[in-house]
């Protein structure tokens, strides 16, 4: 432990492996973005949007609650063990998606996928935060999410191409078999646990002597602090929820909306790929930018740009394909601005002793957005049509950005042991 140091440069090898692992994690979500809604309508002849979107609702609810307990599991069993468990639970998913004989198998696959993602993605986030320390959190989160959502987009594109050549099932899901096996092997054989790095950071900020285990408050206290008591953490949590509401809505609505407009499978694959690819690659820039100019400006502007993207898709200014691509690029840019800044802000505001739990609570609210977005889209689409689901998501995104602008305190340079240089809120840890 005497040679253990915080920093991206000091821990670049483990950090790089974790980036690779998160690319495999993201690829598992990308399996579903283009193909699965169309499996529901074309293969199983499901006529209700709400029933089709049920797989997204199941995924979002399960992932949200798994995120909530992931920090507790990591502190009890180590981050590495939780990461490996996430991959083990994900092993059946591509087989259920590719060969499941009824829609219930697809929903069941998404229950497993939600648990797997909640464990594996949460651990790659926490392990990178542990390794880099406070100085490069924006960059660390940018690289982590770039790998994950870049893989989401590329996999969505590949599955769209495979489906256009070979059919909707099972060939597009062969990619998932590779992702799960590779992710599990790398996690078991090459990844090291990082919990000791969080303890090192806690000792460096003067709250806990080196070598001692810091006091960790109960989850109920962390949940309340992150959800509503701390105004900054509240504003970040609600922005995360609305951000993934957009993703959950687009996940179910876009394939059906653009298929009805005459866009072919390959074109839908491009529309579904552009959003997460721009979102992912953009974070390589926006992550470091959050370390330079602050978290709040990126969050506010990112939400506003997403609202404009919804307006473009909802109104339609050209051919359906062009409209979808332009709107998806705007959604990707806006989300790229928001995503690493939100995670960095939570990491800034939470003490290392309860940071993993606070990140879990934030991710609980954020990934609840998948279920909320899919449920909202299903209900609104049934009553008013698919386009109105896009309009409502855009309005909620605009309101969320205004809430961040009014209530959030900047967290960049905040020291958890003292008031932030920027005037951010401080929190007393219960003893």
Map the helices and strands.
Blueprint: H1 12-33, H2 36-43, H3 49-52, H4 54-77, H5 79-90, H6 93-99, H7 103-132, H8 137-166, H9 174-189, H10 195-204, H11 219-229, H12 231-260, H13 265-293, H14 296-315, H15 320-349, H16 355-384, H17 386-407
Explain this structure:
The protein contains 17 helices and no strands. By secondary structure, it is an all-alpha fold. The protein has one domain (12-407): Growth Hormone, Chain: A (Up-down Bundle), CATH 1.20.1250.20. Helix 6 (93-99) runs antiparallel to helix 9 (174-189) and helix 14 (296-315) runs antiparallel to helix 15. The protein starts with 11 loop residues before the first helix and ends in a 24-residue tail after the last helix. The model is unreliable at 207-212 and 415-424 (pLDDT under 50).
Determine the structural class based on helices, strands and strand pairing. mainly alpha
CATH homologous superfamily grouping: MFS general substrate transporter like domains
Number of domains: 1
- By CATH reckoning, the class would read Mainly Alpha
| Mass-distribution shape | globular
Provide key terms for this protein.
globular, Growth Hormone, Chain: A, 431 residues, mainly alpha
